[in-house]
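Complex 264.
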Amino acid sequence: MSFDHIVYGCEDGIAVITFNRPKALNALNAALLAEFDAALDNVENDPAVRVLVLTGAGEKAFVAGADINEINRLGPLGAKRFARRGAEGITRLTRLAVPVIAAVNGFALGGGTEMALACDFIFAAQSARFGLPEINLGIIPGFGGTQRLPRLIGPARARELIYTGQMIDAEEALRLGIVNRVCADDELMDTVRETARLIAAKGRVALRAAKQAVNTGLNVDLDSGLALENDAFALCLASPDAKEGTGAFLEKRPAVFNGPLDDD
Ligand code: CO8
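Predicted structure with octanoyl-coenzyme A bound:
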């Protein structure tokens, strides 16, 4: 599939999806969401991909939300379909075998904040602005915001943001635990790539197991989560990467992780 509304590339194991409708502040319309889904197929099918980065084209925005022109034309059933498709596409980020980093530049509003919240973690530029302003449009977040934000920052803080629709800046997002790091605008992508490179050098089986253990564990009770971790730990030990990692330590040399995933 060729892409008109996103740019997709992969270099040195780091895939980057750039939302690319800068004139509409990279708003998520149905066509863009279909391309996003196809780009995630590329990520899933390419064993060279070790980390995925999401970012926005242009100076002003990561993603300023779902496309309000399209929402305005929807009836309830169309809204349900659009919201479900978008939410499912975004939820795929949490199920990918590889970690996903959101590099948030400028506005990340509504669906933009929701997209970033589904990533493994977020680095933000000083210019970043987060918020769930759907209430100002007479609607509510439809791409997972009412669920992921309270789980991340607690229900009371999430309610305030959802009920007021107010935007917060990058420093406030850092204070609330929405973002891991705030960088100068012109250093954002370099900083993200530096962290992505660190992750890309790790073993794929261990990365996938760690991601699954954290993400699934967050939705179950502690005993179930610990059982899940135990299984995932055993799976890692069956991988060539575990032999390489532990062997390299004992031989006092750097580990080189090239092992396959178990389904390769
Ligand atoms: N949708 C469509 N177009 C948009 C959007 C958007 N979300 N955001 C910005 N644009 C367009 C503007 O209409 C404008 O277009 P044009 O130049 O043709 O007039 C262009 O982008 C530039 O925007 P502004 O001129 O408004 O730029 P400003 O710097 O003045 O303001 C803001 C920037 C503050 C970001 C402002 O554009 C804004 O408030 N945008 C809307 C933000 C918003 O409300 N987002 C939430 C959308 S709803 C949502 O995300 C729900 C998710 C779940 C959906 C479920 C589906 C049913």
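Residues 24-25, 27, 64-69, 71, 74, 79, 82-83, 86, 107, 109-111, 133-134, 137, 141-143 surround octanoyl-coenzyme A (CB under 6 Å).
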